[in-house]
Amino acid sequence: MKRNMMGMIVAIAIALLACGCNDDPAAPSVGTFTINPEPNALNAPWQVSGPGGHAQSGAGDTTLVNMAAGNYTVTWGEVSGWLTPSPDSATQTLPADGSVTFTGTYLARLGDIVIDVEPSAVAAGWELAGPNGYFATATGDTTLDDLLVGSYTITWAEVGGYVAPAPETAELAEGQTLTLAGTYAPVGPPVVFPDTPDKLMANFQLIYEEMHVGEFMKMLHPHYVMFLQQSTYNEFPDLGTTLDLDEERRIAERMFSGLDVTDPNGALVPGVDAILFQTLQRQGAWTGSPANDPIPDAEFALYDTVILVDRGAGYTLLKVQGALKFYVAAHDSLVGGVTTPYYRLRGLVDLTNDTGRGVVADKATESIAWGAVKALFR
């Protein structure tokens, strides 16, 4: 009996071997692939799509294991300041028990920045901050090559005896040379404390004749506005009908620099050598402006003016003649323990002669409205 039982077991074993035991599950068809965006420091984003609706996203170098064999597509994401690999997607076949590598190389979008300190004799320091944590600091004129495109902010250091320029932010475009210029204005002339409108106007004349940007800006009210004549904004349509505080800052920096500039229409404007007030005479008393005035809650007075703007040999002398309507406003200031009014220029209405720019009888002097003079340097 035992012999028969043993024979049956052997027979069953032989039968199983004969059938090959092929009912075991087959090993899965998988592989490995690597995603490799360059440069590594970018940690560039990517997306993967593959068999069976597989979808995945990530960033930077990555190795994916035990992935089903089949076709996979990697799409490269955008990185600010860099060109996306071309083409921006790639497809490869992952074989069973095999591997593939997707490599995408990003190319930097580059430009140059020129740092221009004026006057050149001022050894002024500066700091420049830009994309991806970029930071540079140096002194004086400098050219920085092959910088990533994007937004850059320059901050100017204080220099004794000068008023430092305001910080500036500008965009560097691919292939562009961006100039960041900082003009240091000498500390202002000996202005008087403006506790009356007339003292403020005396400072106004002195500051213009000395061409000091810093003192000029201190003289202006935060809500300063100048109303231009129609002839001025007809000549310069992009200017609008008024000038605000920021526009006055830009005008003063350019007008007082003595450098050639371009006007809003792109025409060359010779630099100013000197500004002379032949006449700045108040006509009538200072009067409070009503609530319906274009510049309300201030004091105003009309001034008869003759202003000469000298642009040097070979250029006409600009002559402004006529009335300017000045608006002033005061706030309380503590001086020596005493509360004293401190006047600033709240606004201006240009009423000077606007018969159109043209050469007057001596052929060396050009008649022009005061607002048009300012527009040239806007």
How would you describe what is shown here?
This protein has helices at residues 2-19, 197-210, 213-219, 230-235, 245-257, 370-376; strands spanning 30-38, 45-50, 54-59, 62-68, 70-76, 82-83, 89-94, 99-105, 107-108, 110-118, 125-129, 135-139, 142-148, 150-156, 162-163, 168-172, 177-183, 185-186, 220-227, 242-244, 261-262, 268-269, 274-288, 299-310, 317-335, 338-352, 358-359, 365-367. 17% of the residues lie in helices and 48% in strands. It has 378 residues and is an alpha+beta fold. Helix 2 (197-210) runs antiparallel to helix 3. The protein is built from 6 helices and 28 strands. Strands 19, 20, 23, 24, 25, 26, 27 and 28 form an 8-stranded mixed β-sheet that branches. It is elongated. Strand 2 (45-50) and strand 3 (54-59) form a beta hairpin. It folds into 3 domains: 27-107, Immunoglobulin-like, CATH 2.60.40.10; 110-185, Immunoglobulin-like; 188-376, Nuclear Transport Factor 2, Chain: A, CATH 3.10.450.50.
